[in-house]
Amino acid sequence: MEKVDYKPFENVSFSVTEVLSCIRKHQDEVRDLVRGQYVDFMPSAHDYHLLLDSAKLLEVEIGELRTTMNQLSVDKSSAARNDLCQYQRDLEEGVRGYKIAKKLLSIHDLFEALSRTENSYEKRAHMLAKIKQLLNDIEDPVLPELHCFQNMILRYEIEYSGLINDLNTQFKKLVMLQQRTFHNTKSVTIKICKDEVQLCQVVVALLKTQHNFRSVCRFLLDEVFAPVIVKPVSLICDEKSDDEHVQIQLSYQLKVAEELRPGYKTVLSNMIQIFYNLSNMNAVLSEDECLFKVLARQMKKELCEMLIEQCLERDIPGTIEGMKDSPMVKDVTDFNGILTTFNFVDGENDTRLEEYANSIESIHHKKLCDNVLESALEIMKRESHDMVVIEQHEYQFASSTNTATGQSSSCMVTRTAVEMKKFLDKVLTEVQTQHGEAADQLVKTIATILERYTVDVPMANEKLLFKIPQQSALFRNDCSYLNYWLQKNDDKLKEHCSFACISESLKTCGEEIFQHQLSSQRTQMLQALNGFELTNSLVELGSEHQRAIRQCIRQFELLKNVWQTVLPDSVYKQSISGLVDVFLREVIKRVQSLEDITTAIGNGLVLLIDIMKETLPKLFKEPSEVHQLVKQWTKLMQLRQILCGSLVEITELWAEGKGPLTMCFSAEEVKHLVRALFQNTKQRQACIASIA
């Protein structure tokens, strides 16, 4: 193309026309070229090298013409101004077509250069990146509608896929990932070529194509790191025996007992060895990009979570002594630093392990508290049949009257309660060595243990506690025993939280269980007294009456055997005397309900009272205490006197309302008994008259 010699303004019309003609000619030649190459797939008559040179000259001419037109000054109202604006619009329209032709020619030029690069993966990747940039940079909406442009996109995808396939094939030759499964074992082998130049070229080319290495990451996670973290493995990392490859060999059993899982130190050591040897393939693309960073973006989060959940979490010590001797915090922090040194970073999870290391102390406290609670629950689940004698100073039950009188008393608790108390002492000792949140958590755990005691023990031993009198008595003592432990250690615990509610809950729980047992015993006794039925039609007492009384007495004797040495003395006296009192009140009430008491019935009742008089005082250590403890005892003895006495003796016992009978009987009750015992005579009338 000849260079146009621009003249003043009157020649602008000619210059614009000339340049536009050159642009159209250039467009036609480019169109023929790309149509032949990308539509008709036929060789073109045009030499694209000449077209490139022509495009460069044309671009210069366009630039000079624009400069000349911009330097012209004309009156805005003149016709020349309008002409100049039209020339500029025509030129810009032509330039638009020129740019489309230039882009198509540039893409074709890159495709031609790409075909000459052969095995230079990095250059191919670089050229494909340029082509992709040109294809994506669509300034003119006409471009995507061109058939040749769509075929250029298709060719790019073919070339890109070919490059990726070539690179993957070559990468698999340079980095061999193999795994074999046998009957109960698995073998994993990684071989990394020592030819750093070739390996670097392939990896860098893959990085330039933005390859994500997903299959490599999946292999490393599933076949290498997962078994290393959870199974005992045989790991051999060898850099010397093979001149061409660095080898990582891993073998392990598919099924492994839980107790054989490796400790965290072994896991971290193995992972460091693996990363060290994998670093032989860590090609660097730039200061900000390398293979390990690409891998980290795909797998670091999952790897960290796997390491934490499957290994570190399990190995955090659950005891104070274990944590004092454990270097775990430092080891995990150091390991995180090693990963950073290897450039295994993703920008999001690089502090995950360090943050976890900083939280190990608090996790340890929680784990310690969980272990403490679990140990306590194990103690609660133990059989509670064994009993241990404890002295008064070891329990000091608030309900004990012996404390006030200075008398010594002992009782029994289950061995489980004693073990629980010793365990709580041990935990409380640990509280004294801790500070802040750690101490608070342990104290809260003590509270949880005692709260669970009032729920779990009754639930686990429900049948025993409600059916067996000794067990209910022992549980009452156990609750009081632990409640006393709380009271004794109140000064050590109250600075952390209040145990007042728990103390009351322990006391209430034990009492409710025992009171339920007392209620059950009362019901059983009253059922036995169904055989002691006294009616006005009765002539004499039968064997069933004596059997009912003896059955109740036998019930009391059995309770004595299982309660007297178990319960605190005051609690035993109160409980057994209460039952006896109900028993005597019911017997006396039934006797008093009779309208007619024959001599035979009277003698039979005296005989039964004598049986009670002989046996019931023996329920107490001091038989004489029956007079103070059983309210109905005196009334029973006076009833015997009435049943055996004459009218004169009864009159003397009443003594015009000043005698001993007035302590337990009302005048109407005595009159009723006299009417029932004696026939209507003047003497009976006189006796009744004297009772007022």
Automatic annotation (TrEMBL):
One of its GO terms (biological process) is cell division. Residues 547-691 form the ZW10 C-terminal helical domain. InterPro entries: Zw10/DSL1_C_sf, ZW10_C, ZW10_C_2, Zw10_middle. GO terms for cellular component: cytoplasm; nucleus; RZZ complex. Residues 409-526 form the Centromere/kinetochore protein zw10 C-terminal domain. Belongs to the ZW10 family. Residues 184-380 form the Centromere/kinetochore protein zw10 middle domain. Its main location: nucleus. The keyword Nucleus applies. It comes from the Eukaryota. Gene3D superfamilies: 1.10.357.150. Keywords: Cell cycle, Cell division, Centromere, Chromosome, Cytoplasm, Kinetochore, Meiosis, Mitosis, Nucleus. This is Centromere/kinetochore protein zw10. It comes from Anopheles darlingi (Mosquito). It is found in: Chromosome, Centromere, Kinetochore; Cytoplasm; Nucleus.
